[in-house]
Amino acid sequence: MQIDLSVLSVTKIFDAFTAVDAVSFEVNQGEFFSILGPSGCGKTTLLRMIAGFTEPTSGAIHIRGEDMSGIAPNKRPVNLIFQHLALFPMMSVEQNIAFGLQRRRENKTDIRKKVRAILERVGLPDYGDRKVDQLSGGQRQRIAIARCLVLNPTVLLLDEPLGALDLKLREQMKVELKKLQAQVGTTFIYITHDQSEALVMSDHVAVMNEGKFEQLDTPQNLYNRPRTPFVARFVGENNAWSGSVHRCGESNVEVRTEEGLVFRTKAEERLQPGQRVDLFLRPEAMLIQPDPGLPGLNRFDVVVDSILFDGANSQLLVTPLKSRRELVVALPQNRQYDYIKAGDKIEIGWDTNSGICFLQR
Amino acid sequence: MKASRKHHFQWTLAFFLTPVVLWLFLLIVLPHIDLLFMSFRTKDDSGSMVWSFSNYMLFFKEPIYWLTFVRTVLYSILVTFLTFTIALPVAFYITKVSRPRYQVFLTMLLLLPFWVSELVRVYGWMILLRESGVINHFLMKTGLLDKPIEMLYNDVTMIMGLVYTSMLFMVVPLIGVLENLDDSLIEAAYDLGANMWTILFRIIIPHAVPGIVSGSIVVFMLTLGDYLTPNLMGGKNSLWFTEQIYNQFIASFNWNQGSAFGFLLLALSSLVIWAGLKLTNQKLSKVVK
Ligand SMILES: Nc1ncnc2c1ncn2[C@@H]1O[C@H](COP(=O)(O)OP(=O)(O)OP(=O)(O)O)[C@@H](O)[C@H]1O
Ligand SMILES: [Mg+2]
User: Less Cβ crowding at N or C end of chain B, within 10 Å?
Assistant: First the structure.
């Protein structure tokens, strides 16, 4: 498989501040690659280096095997969709899309044909004559994508393009964008701080924190097998305890949390008794009132604080007895648990394989 | 309560507006009405004043007058254009290239020459440029010239002086429009393959049109109506139209003729601006906004 983009140990230092710290990764042709990280972690800086607006302090960027150092943004086979889209307000939709083709001095009939084809592709065939300010947010989004895709870039870079849209539209555009990418087969590099966007759309996701990649993996692995505490906290919802290792078994350990609960769980790495650890557990890993016959469960009693009804995402907020830390438990909406009321005492159980334990550093 | 407040508001409004209205009326409207009447009066053969268009007709009958006017208009357009081509890079540098904390400083630097009057500025230029001036002295000292040359009193020097005088009135509106030009538009164009010139002509100038038009109108009008700079730097043969007006009022004591020329200047320059707006497809209301 061809590699479209390779980033080799790229670092960017502003004055004394390291915004991007020795990041390396490769993106295959036709892949949807996301970079996920909190605000200010250096995502835009990394993207701007790939697009050519910022020179890396050190390291190299290769596109289809060609070194990009010293090549200006207007000469690179990549296009960038800006955080606020940057459609040209002084031009019509058609002129916006034709802008890049005209720069390549393509002939007029070709340009008109390509513009019409791409407008059709993004589902806005009759919008060529509109002014940019006569478009809705979602339509602008699609025009911005069309304006880049019409140039057939090797890599399309997207800087949080859905950030400005409202929730409903964002959900819809997420699916559309994924479909569009599958159709055109262009390599997408998508940056976002919204984990759901990254998980839904991507083939691979890199989780970034303070200028470094924490983990680069498939969405499934990021969710099920986070390799660092940061990833466990940032991707999806998690309950966290800190505690110390009480006893070590073959493949699992016994952890005593600060509140005095004792859990058996599998360990990611070799642990010694007495070491301080962080234990993470997904809300949906907790079973409500498990069958007393089920073996291999950690069981404890909790008091229900409140019920957060949200359709399929409904949750219980509970506090274990003798503890003040609130936990989040997924509440399946199959009517089996309708009897639970705030203030009830219930039993919670979880499988020893669902928890993840990290050594505190 | 509400009514009394409104009443109160109207009184304060009247209080603040009265001096302004009086000022405008007494110093601007009244004299102009008087001048307008005067421009339509002329002496007949017997020497008594009668109503007539002859003051206006003279402008079109005597080539020296309308040719001077045409020359003044053409030079003013040239000055406006030159001012624009110099002001655009300056405004672009101040708003987009320089660091934010230097922006105020650079703008102040630009304003500095305008703290002294035009007269002082023009004399400053004259000290530099005249035959016994600083530049000639310097060139002689270094041996580049063996006899001083007269750099004043020609059209090039006059135009340079006019551009210098008009600079600020073009830079300020341009800074205004360029400040709210989103940097990412320039970057997006660059990313889509545009070079510097395409970005200039397709992105920056179209965005800056309101500033360009308002700056150009101000510079054109100021240059057209300037008296000091053409007279002092261009010398006797600068042939600026304001000098014709001055001559009628002061040299010939023909106030009727002078005011007719004055109104012609007003009417014809408005016509030029109107034609300019029509040609470039602009609307004044959009520019003022
Ligand atoms: N030109 C610059 N000079 C100095 N520091 C900068 C510059 N550009 C970015 N930074 C710093 O680098 C860090 C990373 O910025 P960046 O814009 O890459 O963040 P981001 O991950 O895109 O955040 P967001 O999600 O909020 O857009 C920030 O702390 C920022 O202050
Ligand atoms: Mg960003």
Answer: N
Together in a domain, A68 and A136 = yes
With contact defined as beta carbons under 8 Å apart, do B222 and B166 qualify?
A: yes
| Residues of chain A neighbouring B185 (CB-CB closer than 8 A) | 86, 88
Q: Residue B175 Cα, ligand 2 centroid: separation in angstroms?
A: 27
* Angle separating helix axes B54-61 and B63-92, nearest 10 degrees: 80
Query: Measured between CA atoms, how close is B166 to chain A, in angstroms?
Result: 28
Per-residue model confidence as pLDDT tens digits over A232-257: 999 989 999 989 998 887 778 889 99
Lowest mean pLDDT among A58-72, A168-182, B49-63, B179-193: B49-63
Whether residues A205 and A332 share a domain: the answer is no
- ipTM topping 0.90: no
- Report the SS3 class of residue B200: helix
Q: What is the pLDDT of residues A39-96, one digit of tens each?
A: 999 999 999 999 999 999 999 999 999 999 999 999 999 999 998 899 999 999 999 9
Q: Do A104 and A190 reside in the same domain of the chain?
A: yes
Q: What is the whole-number distance in angstroms between the Cα of residue A44 and the centre of ligand 2?
A: 4
The predicted pLDDT at position B4 comes to: 57
What is the number of structural domains in chain A?
2
pLDDT given for residue B1 in this prediction? 47
Radius of gyration of chain A from its Cα atoms, rounded to whole angstroms: 25
Question: Hey, is the C-beta of B191 within 8 angstroms of any chain A C-beta?
Answer: yes
Co-location of A220 and A250 in the same domain: no
* Helices then strands, each counted (H, E), chain B: 15, 2
* Interatomic CA distance for residues B68 and B57, integer angstroms: 15
pLDDT over threshold 60, residue A347? yes
Q: Which fold has domain B53-287?
A: MetI-like fold (1.10.3720)
A253/A352 same-domain check: yes
Same domain, A207 and A273: no
- Inter-chain touch A148–B206, beta carbons under 8 Å: no
> Closest chain A residue to B192 measured between Cα atoms?
A100
- Residues B19-33 have pLDDT tens digits of 888 888 888 888 888
| B194 contacts on A by Cβ (under 8 Å) | 74, 99, 103
Q: Which domain holds residue A80?
A: 3-228
Residues contacting ligand 1 via CB (< 6 Å):
A 14, 17, 19, 37, 39-45, 193
Query: Where is B241: in which H helix or E strand?
Result: helix B241-246
Confidence (pLDDT) at A110: 94
Q: Of ligand 1's atoms, which has the minimum distance to the CA of residue A41?
A: 21
Q: Is the pLDDT of residue B253 over 80?
A: yes
What local confidence, expressed as pLDDT, does residue B15 receive? 81
**Domain ranges (residues) in chain B:** 1-39, 53-287
Residues from chain B contacting residue A71 (CB–CB below 8 Å): none
Residue A42 CA: nearest ligand 1 atom is 18
> Do A88 and A24 share a domain, yes or no?
yes
> What is d(CA A61, CA A66) in angstroms, rounded to the nearest whole number?
8
* Distance set, CA A255 to CA A358, B76, B106, B232 (Å): 11, 86, 64, 94
